[in-house]
User: Which sequence fits this backbone?
């Protein structure tokens, strides 16, 4: 049960930690500590609660402890900023599944050529140059179209979030 829950939320938990810890290597160390703490405290987890929220609570305190241990580093955020960023990141990541659904909906509204271009650019191992040659387009044309499509998808998601009263 624990590994299933952690696997399902690992990217969001790491994203939460990464928003609070400026250095990627430090964020990875904190994430490892969080995973160990989650494992050790899993018997205390209330199955009726949201695992992600519980994990982020533990991550928050782990980040605070980490921060105290490296407080001499002038590149670290203040406690107040950490708390503010923590709350904002929790809200943002809480909308993750909603945003994925909205992305799917917005993606489905695109034409098949645009969908294919996005899929090729995102998931295939083929380079844009190779794809451009097959499509008979210039590389710059495809990059311009990709940029426009990504903007269009982001705007579509934001519009739908606004309509649903979320951000």
Assistant:
């Amino acid at each position: 049960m624990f590994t299933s829950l952690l696997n399902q939320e690992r990217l969001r938990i790491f994203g939460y930690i990464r928003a609070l810890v400026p250095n990627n290597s430090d964020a990875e160390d904190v994430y490892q500590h969080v995973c160990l703490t989650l494992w050790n405290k899993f018997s205390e987890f209330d199955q009726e609660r949201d695992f992600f929220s519980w994990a982020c609570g533990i991550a928050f305190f782990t980040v605070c402890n980490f921060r105290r241990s490296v407080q001499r580093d002038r590149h670290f955020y203040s406690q107040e900023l950490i708390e503010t960023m923590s709350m904002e990141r929790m809200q943002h990541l809480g909308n993750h599944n909603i945003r994925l659904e909205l992305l799917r909906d917005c993606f489905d509204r695109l034409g098949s050529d645009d969908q294919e271009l996005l899929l090729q650019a995102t998931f295939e191992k083929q380079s844009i140059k190779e794809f451009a040659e097959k499509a008979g387009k210039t590389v710059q044309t495809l990059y311009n179209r990709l940029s426009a499509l990504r903007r269009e998808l982001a705007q579509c998601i934001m519009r739908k979030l606004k309509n649903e009263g979320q951000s």
Q: What stands out?
A: The chain has a mean pLDDT of 84.
